[in-house]
Amino acid sequence: MHNNTGFGLTAAEIEQFVTRGYVVVQDAIKKSVREEWFARGLQRMSRVRKVPDNGIIELTHTKSEFLHDIAPRAWKAVTQLVGGEDRVAAQEVRDDFNLNTQTVPEQEWLPPDRLTTGWHIDGDYFKRFLDSPEQGLLCLILWSDVSVKEGGTFLACDSIGKVARLLLDSTQGLDPRPFTTLYKDCEDFVEITGGAGDVVLCHPFMIHAPSPKTSNRVRLLTNPAISLLEPMQFNRPNATDFSPVERCILRALGVEKLDYGHDRSREQFAPWRRAREIDEVRN
């Protein structure tokens, strides 16, 4: 579902997020910003010395902007999904571009399903609990047009409940590794497509994967972290107080409220997946 008009998400779009875990805010990035960042991304791409075997180039950031400055409609959508602006801790967008250069012949391209590789959830730097605030939303910003079979991110929409149940049963907290195989039990897969300037907002428990392209068109995106000030809560006094992110978890677990808690420390650690940040040739 795509947001086309107005300021913020409609009730139907919020319901889709709660049901399927994602929504797209179209044409959200200001045109001048979109064009300037895309040009800078191409320039930096031209200076890359070596492309990894998987074809995914991740560049270290050189500058940043606040989401509310460069994409006010997307920022409004973020606040709606997490339960209000006063619950957001971080909303900085950095130019740590993710460049997908993996190209395959069209006859070898496969749609998103259980045969796809690379499924994961983001947030490999902290021990994850059911209520973890470190990642309140998975945010994907498209800086280039992405059509079908052009490297759009694959989503496993019915993975959220599976992640939630695993976390509910793991009071010690988990690193990201146990989640990478849950896609095998999923059935609702989506290929993200869109135009330059679109912002895709996904539930933080969304398992997703990169996909190859069948053309040489550039696919350029960033995925800034949207963090919360406080842990999520699943036992709020009123049902209307739950954020759509929290409601999505409760619905997936089949409960209206949940008395959840743990006495373990919230731990951050070095990523278990080595960051694929690429050195550039400096002029």
What this model shows, in words?
- By secondary structure, the protein is of the alpha+beta class.
- It has one domain (2-253): Jelly Rolls.
- It has 6 helices and 14 strands.
- The radius of gyration is 18 Å and the shape is globular.
- The model is unreliable at 2-6 and 272-283 (pLDDT under 50).
Give me a quick take on this structure.
The protein has 283 residues and is an alpha+beta fold. The protein contains six helices and 14 strands. It has one domain (2-253): q2cbj1_9rhob like domain (Jelly Rolls, Sandwich).
Entry keywords:
Jelly Rolls, disordered C terminus, 21% helix, 283 residues, nine-stranded mixed beta sheet, 17% strand, 14 strands, alpha+beta, single chain, three-stranded antiparallel beta sheet, disordered N terminus
CATH top level class name = Mainly Beta
Total number of β-strand segments?
Answer: 14
Per CATH, the superfamily is q2cbj1_9rhob like domain
Q: Given the C-alpha coordinates, what overall shape results?
A: globular
CATH architecture: Sandwich
Question: What is the average per-residue confidence, as pLDDT, rounded to a whole number?
Answer: 88
Structural class: alpha+beta
First and last CA, distance: 43 Å
How is the topology of this model organized?
Elements (H helix, E strand, L loop, with lengths): L1 E2 L7 H10 L1 E4 L5 H15 L10 E3 L5 E3 H4 L1 H11 L5 E3 L1 E3 L3 E3 L36 E6 L11 E3 L3 H9 L20 E3 L7 E4 L4 E3 L9 E4 L2 E4 L15 H10 L30
Parallel strand pairs: 1-2
Antiparallel strand pairs: 2-11, 3-7, 4-6, 5-14, 7-13, 8-11, 8-13, 8-14, 9-10, 9-12
